[in-house]
Amino acid sequence: MGKKIKLGLIGLGGRGMGLLKLVFVHHEDVEFAAVCDVYEDRCQEAAKAVEEAGRPRPLTTQNYKEILAMPEVDAVILCTSWENHLNIAIEAMEAGKYVGCEVGGAYSVQECWKIVEAYERTHVPVMLMENCVYGRDEMMVYNMAEQGVLGTIVHCEGGYKHDLRDEVAFGRENRHYRLDNYIHRNTENYPTHELGPIAKVLHINRGNRMLTLTSMASKAAGLKEYIKNNKADDEVLMNTEFHQGDVVNTIITCANGETILLTLDTTLPRYYSRGFTVQGTKGMYFEDNQSLFIDGEEHAKDHFEWKKHWGNVEEYREKYDHPVWKKYMEEGVKEGHGGMDWLVFCDFIKSVQDQTDVPIDVYDLAAWMSISALAEQSIALGGQPVAIPDFTNGMWIKRK
Hints:
Low-confidence stretches: none
Family: Belongs to the Gfo/Idh/MocA family. Glycosyl hydrolase 109 subfamily.
Radius of gyration: 21 Å
Distance between the termini: 29 Å
Number of domains: 2
Organism: Fusicatenibacter faecihominis
CATH topology of the largest domain: Dihydrodipicolinate Reductase, domain 2
Cofactor: NAD(+)
Order of helices and strands: EHEHEHEHEHEHEHHHEHHEEEEEHHHHE
Structural class: alpha/beta
Shape: globular
Largest sheet: 8 strands, mixed
CATH superfamily of the largest domain: Dihydrodipicolinate Reductase, domain 2
Number of helices: 15
Strand content: 15-25%
Number of strands: 14
Keywords: Glycosidase, Hydrolase, NAD
Oligomer: single chain
GO molecular function, one term: hydrolase activity, acting on glycosyl bonds
Strand order of the largest sheet: 13-12-11-7-10-9-8-14
Helix content: 25-40%
């Protein structure tokens, strides 16, 4: 056990409450000082969950500023709606609290610059809690790329391909923020799940950076049809025009010559996938059929018979599994999105304990989250290329 960290949890919707019950309360080095949400019933439910886990009941508040004013709080986790992430994060940094910020997309490039400037002014770290960077396959492929197994990386793909029609359509009843975004915005609204692991493989902000993007959206038909078939008694939604395209494709170019394709696909019937794909001069990984293709190996000799070898990732585990996951498998994988949530939370808590910088830092947060604001611009301009700012101000060239 390390030093006990006193934590404040701000935002107790589906994500915040889920993390609290599955992950946070089981970490021995964490004590809950306070929990916060704008809805009182959520505050009480969270406090009860902490008590049921055998911990002292935390303070409950509907005003996050009360948590930021508590001197005993070492760090805060933000699980609020997307539009509140960065403003509250900046206030927390100015109050001297380490910040673990849940994922989403930014609404403007200016707010991304603001959080970078807040870090450079306060030197208080903020970590983007992007759990997908810690996925077993994502970390194994990163390990293979670092060892040169896939050769020179040329192209990567990722997606947030998740049927959210029910969640969006019943947003009012469930007090969920996605609905308003789908009514008013048209963009790559949730970029970091797919981009995070790719950014690590391509060393974004550490010897490489994203230069430009172009983004295009299909028409918005999926939600309207879903509501017509499943919620026809909702007169307001039946007469609502949704701006968010059903499928959004965003192509990003990088300083070192690679390309990235991101796909948002959340309002049509489909299976879940993050579409993680890495292609290099010696091989490729393809998430959708759990396959690795390594040039020169037996399975790669007859390209037309390749489908016989689909789903072969397990054959490579022993040789290429990331050391973090080898140890994790031995110790016992915890709950929370297949174990990813536990790993990202542990890294955050370790950084707070040691008072060190975080593994997914403010420059990563700004770059990855800015894609939403920039894609929105590109779509509005008919798919025109848009420049991606260098939030490191040139430091990416030599950052490790």
